[in-house]
From TrEMBL:
<dbReference type="InterPro" id="IPR002901">
    <property type="entry name" value="MGlyc_endo_b_GlcNAc-like_dom"/>
</dbReference>
<protein>
    <submittedName>
        <fullName>Glucosaminidase</fullName>
    </submittedName>
</protein>
<dbReference type="GO" id="GO:0004040">
    <property type="term" value="F:amidase activity"/>
</dbReference>
<feature type="domain" description="Mannosyl-glycoprotein endo-beta-N-acetylglucosamidase-like">
    <location>
        <begin position="165"/>
        <end position="293"/>
    </location>
</feature>
<dbReference type="InterPro" id="IPR053195">
    <property type="entry name" value="Bax-like"/>
</dbReference>
<dbReference type="Pfam" id="PF01832">
    <property type="entry name" value="Glucosaminidase"/>
</dbReference>
């Protein structure tokens, strides 16, 4: 099928020249579809029972999602239900948490993949010798600055270097870390601060003091306005912090050799510096991926948000 026009919101690219990067076109199309599936407003659900009822009404079943016979309803929660930690039995609480966290992670990934698709198309444009308008160069520099590479120029080597950072992570890995860091959504940080991934901050106005913080320590667990903000900050952390350079290298190698993201288990082995527990933390993340069969969700897709707007609105306090 001939492709004549493709809108890329990040870099404002439209007409694609002969010889354009087909891989970038495919990534752009997938990212655009995924982004259009995400609601503009987070959903507020007041209780675990109400969340469970919403998921049942939407036919949201993890087995069907894993089999590819059903997409993930794009219900992106603003916060977890305050009584989630009390939901019983335990298996029900765990399933609720996974179903709640999955579209949040997927939405955050989709935003990054949209940026990546724009960069891939920009690279194809540069390599084809086409002029890059000033506004596109400014947007590229703003993106590079946000990803900690402010010195880059919009030329092939610089774009490729930025592409190593602007990428998604397997949802299996993100879900396992959210489970570990939030205690299946039961921690004070998750419930009061929308913190799914245990990120630290030294800004007294932006975090919550851990109860067991050692004497003399000044770090806090970063709090967020919404769960989506937490997921986006988590991805930016993995994509920029020097501690996770090995993860980015492994991901780039998988992209180069296979054209896909590596398995969540494989990337988990590059996270020894995510926690003070080091290798023990990595072992726990791998175990969570295996025990909860999270890898089967790596190919999940988000459904069109318009199909779910009414049902989601019925369950919300505010849209």
């Amino acid at each position: 099928m001939a492709v004549g026009l493709l809108l890329l919101p990040l870099l404002g690219l439209a007409m694609l020249p002969p010889g354009s990067d087909i891989g970038g076109i495919v990534e752009a199309a997938r990212a655009s579809r995924a982004r259009s599936a995400v609601p503009h407003h987070p959903v507020h659900v007041e209780s675990a029972d109400r969340l469970d009822a919403l998921f049942e009404r939407l036919g949201y079943d993890l087995d069907a999602v894993a089999e590819g016979s059903a997409p993930v309803p794009p219900v992106v929660l603003a916060s977890l239900p305050p009584d989630l930690a009390e939901a019983t039995p335990v298996d029900r609480r765990k399933a609720l948490f996974i179903r709640a966290a999955l579209p949040i992670v997927m939405a955050a990934n989709a935003a990054v993949l949209e940026e990546r698709a724009g960069l891939r198309s920009l690279l194809a444009r540069v390599e084809a010798g086409r002029r890059i308008p000033r506004e596109l160069r400014h947007r590229f520099r703003r993106t590079a600055e946000r990803y900690g590479l402010a010195d880059l120029e919009a030329e092939p080597a610089g774009i490729r270097r930025l592409l190593r950072r602007v990428d998604a992570v397997p949802v299996s890995l993100a879900l396992a870390q959210a489970i570990s860091e939030s205690g299946w959504g039961s921690s004070r940080f998750a419930l009061a601060g929308n913190a799914l991934f245990g990120q630290w901050t030294w800004d007294a106005a932006a975090g919550m003091v851990p109860a067991a913080r050692p004497a003399g320590a000044t770090h806090r667990v970063r709090a967020f306005r919404t769960l989506g903000d937490s997921a986006r900050a988590y991805l930016l952390n993995l994509n920029t912090h020097p501690a996770y350079a090995a993860l980015r290298e492994a991901r780039a190698a998988a992209r180069r050799d296979h054209g896909t993201l590596p398995a969540g288990e494989d990337l988990a082995r590059a996270l020894t510096r995510y926690s003070e527990r080091g290798d023990a933390y990595v072992a726990d993340i791998v175990a969570l991926i295996r025990q909860n069969r999270l890898a089967r969700l790596d190919e999940a897709t988000l459904a069109d948000a318009r199909r779910y707007a009414t049902a989601a609105a019925d369950a919300t306090i505010e849209g």
